[in-house]
Amino acid sequence: MKFNLSHRALLQHALVVIAILMAFYHMWAIAFGAAEAVLFRGTHLLFALVLVFLLYRSTAKSEDKELAATGFQPDGPKLTLPTPLDYLLLVAAAAPIVYLFVNYQYIVNRIFYIDDLSPMDMAMGVLLTLIVLEATRRVIGWALPITAIVFLIYGLFIARLEPERMLDQLFMTTEGIFGIPLSVSAGYVLIFVLFGSFMERTGTGQLFMDFAMALTGHTAGGPGKVSVVSSSLFGTISGSAVANVMVDGPISIPLMKRSGFPPHFAAGVEATASTGGQIMPPIMGAAAFVMAEFLAVSYAQVVIWAIIPAILYYVACFAAVHFEAKRRGLMGLPRSELPKLGEVMRVRGHLFIPVVLILVVMYSGFSAPLAALVGTLACFPVAALRASTRPNVNWPNIRDAFVDGARNALGVALACACAGIVIGVVTLSGLGIVFTQFVTHLSQHSLLLALVLTMCAGIVLGMGMPTTPAYIIMTALLVPAIIKLGVIPPAAHMFALYFAVLSAITPPVALAVFAAAGIAKADLWASGWAAVKIGAAGFIVPFMLIYEPALLMIGTWPQVIGAFVTASAGILMFAAGLHGYFITATVYWQRAALVGAGLLLIFPGLITDLAGAGLGVLVILSQLAGRRAAASLAAGRSPAETAS
């Protein structure tokens, strides 16, 4: 028993030390320059693999994963101790990467695909591939490893690639496991995840919730709107839909249920609002950094492209909550129970400073990782400025912030390494070109059909894996097809990114919905369909980007403003039609007209805009007339008497 206790204490302290070293290594690389690609990415992967095999057991039970997510702290939950097999796999994980480091000169001086691999090269390549598959399975489940295995089988037995050439691609170059996805995880994701954990530990989550409550809590369906606003804010620092739900949901979902929303609708609102955090500037999800690398543009440029689509997504969510609340006659929370906006800003408003710093540094011409580093280093000093947040500035909290950052980056790191296997096979086999030809043939050169196929693929891929690998696979297989059909690359990539994100709320496998439904104690299917209905207008946004690039701020300012105004009006009408309320409760023909008006306004073009506006005006006039008639009847007068 004494051995077990000492073993556990030693394990938890070792985990803390390794996590802090991982964070410091990446901070040092950003500040003073990273090592060569293989060395930097290899070190990042080595840290991640060591932590995974110390934290996650081979059983991969949900309770083990929950403990792994909280079990770093010496006074935290009791982690299951690693077995001898876990330690053996840890050594096996380190061996191929250490082999690359020791033989680095040989690796960089050889001519890949031409110089034959040695038996040791091949053994280490096979070992690392298997280790990455197993580590990914432990952290995020079977879906992505099975996908990678399918691609490996395709490469070996269908494309007839030489095993030696495939191992060369996957292990000995920066086109496989150590490719662009892992580069993004090492260079971008970890520091932004670390920033998010620092923000959380300084009390920023409470700031976001109080800010949203003060702003919208008193309005119709106020708690639902609080969920939308707070989740959009928190999503900018978390980058994970499920994490967002687990932080905001325990507060916002009970408030929504108390105000009169059904449990399944409350779960749908929280899941939909939390999912949008990955596309919400200024700090988007990990896939946005991958997008910047694939398009060879700065992350700041991706943020600019994403601003209007993100606003439209949250306009759709906000409108859905508002119209549903109006239809049900739900009121907001009493002002006496809500924080005052001025007081919130006075007490905690200074915690916005690190986010502002990131924007200032990034748009001053410096890199996004450096901006994130500045913001991270500013978090605790900023928290120390006011007595209200000063208690958060202590060594245990700082230590735990480092630990949280390293732990939260593991899923992305392993997903990117495993996605590198897929990319390596696709590149070497030419499958991307084959798939592009297949999609264009299947769609008969119809852009709309190709977009629908891409949407379905994104939703299916996203059901079983995180957003980042789902987006990466779509980029390799589907995005080239829609680009070939005439879509500009930023719009094509944003389309793929959106549907990889939206898979988190699409039944039957909707991870954000599962988390929210658990908190709300609601039926999973009812919650899933509620989320789809709330985010339905958001599903149209990606199609809008394809047909109207001005929504990506590509074009003149009059074009951008015009597209934004008509798209916003269209989304409002579309949401009103779906939820059965606009100015007043709607009848069936008004709902149909509103949905039609919304779609016409969303679709670009002067004729469609005029037709949509005409339908919208017709509904507005009929609703105003109906409300006037109802008011007259309530006052005991006939409509004719009122008109006269």
How would you describe what is shown here?
Helix 4 crosses helix 6 (119-140) and helix 11 (222-238) runs parallel beside helix 13. The protein folds into three domains: 2-176, no CATH class; 183-412, no CATH class; 557-644, no CATH class. It is mainly alpha-helical and 644 residues long. The radius of gyration is 26 Å and the shape is globular. Helices cover 76% and strands 0% of the residues. The model is unreliable at 60-64 and 66-71 (pLDDT under 50).
For the record, give the distance between the C-alpha atoms at the N and C termini, rounded to a whole number. Answer: 92 Å
Query: What is the total tally of β strands?
Result: 0
Largest sheet: none
Which percent range describes the beta-strand content?
Answer: under 5%
Helix percentage range = over 70%
Name a few traits of the molecule.
3 domains; 0% strand; 644 residues; 76% helix
Topology summary:
Blueprint: H1 2-32, H2 37-55, H3 62-70, H4 84-102, H5 104-109, H6 119-140, H7 143-158, H8 163-171, H9 180-201, H10 204-216, H11 222-238, H12 241-259, H13 263-275, H14 286-295, H15 299-328, H16 341-348, H17 353-362, H18 368-383, H19 395-429, H20 431-442, H21 447-464, H22 467-477, H23 479-484, H24 489-502, H25 511-520, H26 524-534, H27 536-547, H28 557-579, H29 588-602, H30 606-634, H31 639-643
Helix pairs in contact: 1-2, 1-9, 1-19, 2-4, 2-9, 2-19, 4-6, 6-7, 6-8, 6-19, 7-19, 9-14, 9-18, 9-19, 10-11, 10-16, 11-12, 11-13, 11-15, 12-13, 12-25, 13-25, 13-26, 14-15, 14-22, 14-24, 15-27, 15-28, 17-18, 19-22, 21-22, 21-24, 22-24, 24-27, 25-26, 27-28, 28-29, 29-30
